[in-house]
Structure formats: C-alpha cells, structure tokens
Write a structure and sequence with these properties.
The complex is a heterodimer of chains A (110) and B (620). Helix content of chain A is 80%, strand content 0%. With 110 residues, chain A is an all-alpha fold. Chain B has 620 residues and is mainly alpha-helical. Classes of the chains: A mainly alpha (110), B mainly alpha (620).
Chain lengths: 110, 620
C-alpha cells in the first residue's frame, strides 16, 4: 500500500487532480444552468458533488489528514439520500404533469 | 395581639362568599352571610374596645407584613387603633350593621340581591381598612376601594342610563381629588421619607411652613373630592341614583366623611399650616351655605337630603378649619346618626309611595306610616339643632369654635343652620302633612326596615349628649374653651326654631305663599332651582373642552394620525420593499441556479481579495 501511495504522490502531481475536479465542477455548473430536463440537472448536481469529493480526497492525501475522507463519506451519504428523495419527487412530478421540462414547472410562483 | 385584621376581614369574607357563590345561594343564606359578617365585625370592635385598655395613652398598633421596601423607604401593612379610630370604627360598623339589616327589607324584591350585598360588604372592608390604616398608603388603598364600591353601587341599576352616568361622574370627579391626595403623598415621601402616621406627625413641627401648607392643601383637594366640597361636590347629588341604603351608608354616614377623618388624622400637619387651615374653614363654610341654598328649592326628597349632606359636610370642614377637630368628628358622628336616619326614612317614604321620589306627589303620610314619621321627625329635629337632640351638641360646638376664630363665620354658619332647619322641615311637611297627592295606597314598611329606623332615632335623640366626643378625644386635640356666652347658644337654637316655624307657615298654614314667592322672585328662584347651573358651567368650561380636545387632538390626531399612522406605515413600507424583492422570485429554476452561481462567484472573489490583502499585510 505505501508503494501505491508513493506512486500516486510521485506519479501524478496534485494540481492535476485539482484541475480535473474543477473541470468536472464547471461542467456540472454549466449543465445545471443550461439544461432543461430535470433528470440532467439532477445528474449535474451529482457531478458537482463528486467533483468536490475528488478535491476532498486529494487534499486529504496531500496533508495526510483523515478528515477529508470522512467529509467525502458524509457527502456520499447526503448524495444518496438526496437521490432517493429527488428521484421520488421527479417521478411524482412526471406522473402529474407529464413533462420534465424545468421551465414548465413553476407553479410555486405566486 | 388584638387581631385587628379580623375587623375588615370578616366583611371581606362575606363579600367573597356572596360575590362568588351568591348567584346559586338561597336568599336567606345571602342575607345571613351579609348581615352576620358586619355584625361580627361590630362585635369584634366592641371586644377590642373592652379589652384594649386606655387607647388614648397606648394606641394598639399591629404590623402584619412589609408591603413595600425600597432602600430606606418602607411601607408596612399596619393597622392602628386609637380613640379617633375607635370612634370611627364604631360609627362604621354600628351604622353599617343597621343599614345592612334595613337593606334586607328594602332590597327584598330587587334583582341582583346577592350582588348588592357583595358590594356592600366589600365597601365595609375598604372603609374599615381606611379607618384602621396606620400609614397614608394603606389609607389610600381603602380610600380608592370605597370610591370603587361607591361607583359600583351608584350604578347598581345599570340598565338605567342616568345611574351609570352618575356612577361615572362620581368616579371621574373623585379622580381629581385623588390626584391631589397622590401628590400630597409624594410630597410627604420626599420630605419625611416615610408615610407612617406617627413618624410623619412627630416630624411635622420641624418642617418649613411652605412644605406643610402645600401638603395640607393637596390633602384638602383629596378630601374635597371624597367629601363633596366646593368645587368637587357635584357628584354627590347625582349619586342618589343608587339604592337608598347606599345613599344612607356610603353617601351620608361613612364614605363621604372619610375626608373629614383624613384631615383630622393629619391634624399635626394642618395645625402647622395656618393658611391651609383658613382655606379649609372657608371651603367648608362656603360649601355649607351654597349647598343649603340649593336644598331650599329641590323637589326630590333624596336630592334635598343630598344637598343637606353636602352642607353638613361643609360644617365639619368648618370645624376642622377653625381648629376644633374634635367638634368636627363629633358632628361627623351625630350626622352619621341623623343623616343615615333621614335617608333610611326617605327610603321608607319612597317605599310607602311605591317608588315615588317627588315630594309634590306625597303628603299626608303621617297616618299611613307613623313609625317612619316619628323617627324621621327625630332626625329632622336633630339636624335642625334643637336641644337635646344629637345635632344640637355638635353643631353648637362647631359654631362656638367658629365664633372664637372669626365672628363672621359664626353668623354665616348660623344663617345656614336656619336654612337647614327650613328645608328639612319643608320636606317633612310636604311629605307627612296635608292630603296624600300620589297614586296607590301608601303603607308602612316592614319591621326589618323600621327597626333600624327606631335604633337610629334613639341615637339621634341621645347620641350627642351620651358620646361627648371632644371629652373623649381630649388628649389628642386641644379642647375648646367653652365661652360663657349665652348669646351664641340663643342664636344657634333660635335660628333652628325660626327655620322650622317659617317652613310650617309656608307649607302648612299658608300653602300659596311658596308659589307666590317663587313667581315674584322667579329669576333668583330659577337659578337656585337649577343648582346655580354649576353642572352646566362645568360642562361648558371643563367637560366639553376636554371632550373636544380628546376627540380632535388625542383621538383623530394622536391615535389615528400618529400611532395608527406609524403602524400602518410600517406595514405599507414592508409591502412595497417586498414588492421590489418579489421580482427575484421568477419561478424559473434555472434563474435561481444562476443566482446561486453568481453568489458563489461573488463570495469567492471577496474571499480571494481579502486573502490577498492578508498576504500583503503579512509580507510587509
């Protein structure tokens, strides 16, 4: 195990991980803002969460601190719960409205 | 321990029982509770009187608990009994018992029987608290309490508009007096640091005259409200809207004399403020004359006696003002006897005439209601100052004291005494002589009503001679030297007899004469008949401006303009600001997302800038 870690540390620089994380996050943000389908928006949210997870583990490894891992687990648990609730809501919305276009679902206004 | 607290506590217990459960209790039980509580209280006063020893040398003082403590200042719930208190206690509980018994007969067929007796017992509680108090604040508690009960009982027939208005009037006019009383208490606290009677009175001689005069004048203002003196007397005649036993107990015998009692209690302050004493005497004398002249021309039997009460209270203040405190208390006591009797008798007359109060519709009642007639005659002779009836002794004592102070006061007082005799006997002749002019068949009252009348008649006959108050109070107040001046005695009896004879001539012998006098002096007669238009003057100068000011400035200006304006303005402003922010809530989820992202970016920029600033600061 220590060999693998050393390989990781020596092989790929930290900045690459962070750049990957940032790119994933930016993709998530862009999709979140631009796409019309709720499913896609939902997936973009998951993408952002996982991008953050990636940067957490990166820093955790860099500083040799375990708290980054623990944060990651928390985020995963939250994401799982969110997926359960979110998918249920999406399902109900689709049943009642027959559409998943985000611009048409605005009945909370007024 | 004499357990003085029992004296007011017993009527209070009666109030609680009748007030809380009275609606469901049978009438006999209500009567028993109401009368027994006052009788027991009277009994306890007697017990204290018998066992307390020499009250003049050693007053009984009991401390129950400390009510207020603030730094050096302390007010305790203290009761004290000295000779003055003992006299007042006997008057209040004794007369109170008689009137309670009378009321069981008078009110027998009235709605709200339990309510009436609950209020009456509550009144007894507050009055006894007032009398027993050992400091000004406890006295003030009773003072306000009796005012409350007076208000409740004047407005007892609350479906009658005039009764509720009269109750309000009494309450509001008394507020003016109580304002003065409060200010007096504040001045006492500031200057003496205590409200305790013994401490205040022992320190009073050392204080500057100006301070004492201010305190005494403010106390007098309070007394003017409670005891119906000029300029605050206007509520008392209207207070006759209440049931007659209330008029007798509260508005003749006890509550209205509280002002006289309070001034006498504060004698140590008054005697060191000569200007205030002079004011008391003049106010008293002016009220006595003024009210007596109004009494000459009234037709409502209760109104006649009401103005007579105002006038007699003026006498008491005259006594206090000329320094004859004990004579004032003497008159207070005899007045309690004969005026309670006059009112109870009037109640009996009204009862006999089926609720008629106008004397022009009475007459000839002598043969229908003989007991009422004879007892009422005793009271009338007593108030006219005919020896040996009770009123003679006390009235003479006051007039003699007034003569020593200033002879003109004696002469004015004597003329007033003549007028008093005249209007009381005018009422007697109109009511009991001639032919019956009313409707229905007049009848005598039940024994529960004429029993107390008889007891009071005996007191009105011998009460003045038997209880020589100035002798009893000799240690507390200097006794006036009885001057050997038979002229004074002759005058004071003479005017009484003259008044009675004039009334006899005008209302029995020559019945057309009053009409002729009224028509030939119609201007003067109308002014007196309409009570000098005092109520109208007060309406025009005080009441209406206050109402107008309250309506335009306070109601429309302050309340609707400023207060409602602020409240509504806050609401409208919030709404319009909210209307601006509302634009953000487009309902478009992607625009929300954009806002979130922009917010995050803004946050990042702020953090980045501050981090750079921090780094620069460290680097330098």
């Amino acid at each position: 195990m220590p060999e693998a870690l050393q390989a990781l540390n020596s092989g790929v620089p930290v900045s690459w991980y962070l750049i990957l994380s940032a790119v994933l996050f930016a993709l998530g943000v862009g999709g979140f803002m631009l796409r019309r389908s709720i499913i896609t928006v939902f997936m973009c949210i998951e993408l952002m969460l996982n991008a953050v997870n990636l940067s957490f583990v990166t820093f955790s490894n860099q500083h040799k601190l375990v708290s980054g891992h623990i944060f990651t687990f928390f985020v995963m648990v939250v994401a799982a719960a969110e997926a359960a609730v979110g998918l249920a809501i999406i399902l109900t919305v689709f049943k009642n409205r027959g559409t998943l276009n985000i611009d048409e679902i605005s009945s909370l206004k007024n | 321990m004499q357990h003085l607290w029992l004296i007011p506590a017993l009527p209070f217990l009666g109030f609680l029982i009748n007030g809380i459960f009275g609606r469901k209790l049978p009438k006999s039980l209500i009567t028993a509770v109401a009368v027994a509580s006052v009788l027991l209280s009277f009994g306890w006063v007697m017990k204290v009187f018998m066992t307390a020893g020499d009250l003049g040398a050693t007053p009984v003082t009991e401390h129950y608990f400390t009510w207020i403590r603030s730094g050096q200042f302390q007010v305790g719930w203290d009761f004290t009994v000295d000779k003055l208190t003992m006299i007042m206690l006997m008057i209040v509980t004794g007369i109170g018992s008689l009137i309670h018994i009378y009321a069981t007969g008078y009110m027998a067929h009235e709605e709200g029987y339990y309510r009436f007796f609950a209020y009456l017992n509550l009144f007894m509680f507050f009055m006894l608290d007032l009398v027993l108090a050992a400091n000004y604040l406890i006295l003030f508690v009773g003072w306000e309490g009796v005012g409350l009960c007076s208000y409740l009982l004047i407005g007892f027939y609350f479906v009658k508009q005039s009764a509720t208005t009269a109750g309000n009037k009494a309450f509001i006019v008394n507020r003016i007096g109580d304002f003065g009383f409060s200010l007096a208490m504040f001045l006492i606290v500031v200057n003496f640091g205590t409200l305790d009677f013994t401490q205040v009175f022992s320190a009073a001689p050392g204080k500057p005259v100006g301070t004492l005069t201010a305190i005494a004048l403010l106390l007098l203002l309070g007394a003017c409200g409670k005891s119906a003196q000029i300029p605050l007397y206007v509520w008392l005649p209207d207070a006759m809207e209440g049931p007659t036993p209330v008029s007798a107990l509260i508005h003749a015998a006890t509550m209205v004399t509280a002002g006289v009692y309070m001034c006498t209690r504060s004698a140590a302050i008054f005697t060191h403020a000569p200007a205030a004493m002079e004011t008391v005497a003049i106010v008293g004398l002016a009220t006595a004359v003024f009210a007596a002249t109004i009494g000459l021309a009234q037709n409502d039997i209760k109104k006649v006696f009401a103005y007579s009460t105002v006038s007699q209270l003026g006498y008491m203040f005259l006594g206090v003002g000329v320094g004859a405190f004990s004579a004032g208390i003497w008159h207070l006591m005899t007045h309690a006897f004969f005026k309670a009797l006059l009112f109870l008798g009037a109640g009996s007359v009204i009862h006999a005439c089926h609720g008629e109060q106008d004397m022009r519709h009475m007459g000839g009642l002598k043969k229908y209601a003989p007991v009422t007639f004879w007892t009422l005659l005793t009271a009338a002779l007593a108030i006219s100052g005919i020896p040996p009836f009770a009123g003679f002794w006390s009235k003479d004592a006051i007039l003699v004291a007034a003569y020593q102070h200033a002879p003109w006061m004696f002469w004015v007082g004597a003329v007033t005494a003549g007028m008093t005799a005249f209007y009381v006997f005018r009422a007697m002749f109109l009511t009991f002589f001639g032919e019956y002019r009313g409707h229905g068949h007049p009848h005598e009252s039940p024994v529960s009503m004429w029993g107390p009348l008889a007891a009071l008649a005996v007191l009105s006959l011998v009460g003045g001679y038997l209880f020589n108050v100035p002798k009893i109070l000799e240690g507390m107040f200097p006794i006036a030297e009885e001057p050997d001046n038979p002229m004074l005695l002759t005058v004071s009896i003479g005017v009484g007899v003259l008044g009675i004879l004039t009334a006899y001539y005008m209302y029995v012998v020559n019945k057309e004469l009053p009409e002729r006098i009224a028509s030939s002096f119609s201007g003067l007669y109308n002014v007196v008949y309409n009570k000098y238009f005092v109520d109208e003057i007060y309406d025009a100068t005080v009441v209406n401006p206050v109402i107008a000011g309250s309506t335009t400035v306070l109601w429309h200006g302050m309340d609707q303009g400023v207060i409602d304006g602020i409240v509504n303005g806050v609401g409208t402003e919030s709404k319009s600001i909210g209307g601006l922010l509302k634009q953000l809530q487009s309902g478009n989820i992607r625009s929300y997302a954009t806002w979130v992202v922009l917010g995050a970016v803004a946050l990042l920029i702020v953090m980045g800038v501050s981090a750079m600033g921090f780094a620069a600061g460290v680097g330098r």
